[in-house]
Amino acid sequence: MTHSEFRYAHHPEDVKRYTTEELREHFLIEELFVRDEIRLTYTMYDRYIAGGAFPVDKALKLGTIDELKADYFLERRELGVINVGGKGKVTVDGAVYELDHKEALYVGRGCKEVVFETAGGEQPYFYINSAPAHTAYPTKKVTRNEAEIVELGDSKYSNKRTINKLLVNSVVETCQLQMGMTELKEGSVWNTMPAHTHERRMEVYFYFDLEEGQAISHFMGQPDQTRHIFMKNHQAVISPEWSIHSGAGTSNYTFIWGMAGENLDYGDMDGVAPDELK
Hints:
Elements: E1 2-7, H1 12-15, H2 20-27, E2 28-29, E3 37-43, E4 49-54, E5 60-61, E6 77-83, E7 88-92, E8 95-99, E9 104-107, E10 114-118, E11 126-132, E12 140-142, E13 148-152, E14 161-167, E15 178-184, E16 190-191, E17 195-197, E18 201-208, E19 216-222, E20 225-231, E21 235-239, E22 246-249, E23 254-261, E24 270-272
Parallel strand pairs: 1-3
Antiparallel strand pairs: 2-21, 3-4, 4-11, 5-10, 6-9, 6-11, 7-8, 7-10, 9-12, 13-14, 14-15, 15-23, 16-22, 17-24, 18-21, 18-23, 19-20, 19-22
């Protein structure tokens, strides 16, 4: 079964006045993985969708949702999937793709049937992102070894991290969807620091690999009007194009970044030095 919820876009002048409860209501996606369900959040930021599929006792077929007004989910969309659990299977129009832990799958526009299921053993958690698409590109699996890997940061600044570019235009052809995974080294807690904005793209962050009992403070807002949201493991947060997107955890963790918008230029960002933030 596929469930969906809807989120409007927000003006930064309005967000300045939001309470903690309002910030969480509009930007935090608290529950992505529900047993034997597909949960999706449709946002008005570039009409991006983020969600999760958690097949336990049965296979889960990705159904269309009311917001799309489409005969099937990928009629006018592309899809990215990253498995953050045990080995699972994704079947796309009859072709079976096995996804191990931290492996990705790109599914192109026009594919009519997408089914998620377990492959035995530890339970898979399929994290899903989707964006509108105007060209049909081939479905392609991307392993950890096929990713473009970049080492960034310094333990001196508590931000030593490995960036795995999985579904980006240097690895797989997409219309506008890009996804990757950043792993924080032990002892490092800051992600995307120094911070940046990119007004030509919006973004969604999904946090996982966080120890039980620990938390992440995700920072958002304009550089001179920052706000924070405390988050738990397996939660996601919507980042508008005008907002920074950074975070600090009480331990190290991993997060998946997904984005869509005006271009596919990963380096297109407007940096903000740490001592410029307010």
